[in-house]
Amino acid sequence: EKPEEIPEVLRHRHFVAIPLIAISLLLMYLTSQRALLLKPTLIEGLPPLIQAVETDQQIPFAAGSTAQLFRGSQLINQNGAMHLAEGSILVRAEGPVRVTVGDLTVHVLRGSAHLSSNNSVVTIAALTTPVLVQSVTGELLIPAGSQWRQTEALPVFNVSQWSAWAASQQFSPLPLEFAQSMEDVLRTFPAPPQPEAVAMIDLSKAQQ
Fold first, then answer.
1. What percent of the chain has pLDDT over 70?
2. Residue 196: which residues within 8 A CB-CB, separation 6 or more?
């Protein structure tokens, strides 16, 4: 599975839907949370190479997160981190989930996103959560409900050169049919873990 091509006339920058000043502020906050972003993603016991040869394969991640590796895809387990070598993967994150693909490090924050690498072309669809993308050259934040295809090196985020960075942020709206198909797949995922119940104290009895 991979996002459909978007007609050129539909491509736009998200200046209206997601103000870039809000994106830049969120980006500054996220990049400061290094310890949170670098937590291990994969659970222990998974093999070094995970392949979906003939059928799609669901993979449990740490902290109740789940992913689906689509048929023909390969995922490399690198000591608890994961690298999408080829194909596509759908991630439902219950906390930050990190995936490397090509020369990019992708952080799915809390929600769902689709990543694909086909013939060295990387496409990232932020379905229900913003997606932070980093490389040695720069970084960007893909707003929820949009997608981005790598065509050049990531721009360097610099507050003093904010206008130039903002002008480089080009995203496309998600094709409706693709978004709906991913929603159908997400419905097959196991229910996320429920937060532990907090014991309540009956103060009226405690005072007796």
1. 64
2. none
The 10s digit of each residue's pLDDT in 150-190 is: 887 776 766 566 666 666 667 889 999 999 999 999 999 99
pTM for the model: 0.74
- CA 141 to chain centroid: 10
Q: What are the residues whose beta carbons fall under 8 Å from the beta carbon of 54, sequence distance 6 or more?
A: 71
Residue 68 gets the label, from left (phi > 0), alpha (psi -120 to 50) or beta, of beta
Residue 66 near residue 92, CB atoms below 8 Å: yes
Alpha-carbon distances, residue 205 vs 52, 64, 202 (angstroms): 57, 37, 6
List residues bridging with 139 in a β-sheet: 134
Rounded CA-CA distance 71/117 in Å is 13
What per-residue string of b and e applies to 132-147 under the rule 16 or more CB within 10 Å gives b?
Answer: bbbeeeebbbbbbbbb
Give 101's contacts (C-beta < 8 A, 6+ positions apart). 83, 84, 115, 117, 122
Task: Please say whether the beta carbons of 148 and 172 come within 8 A.
Answer: yes
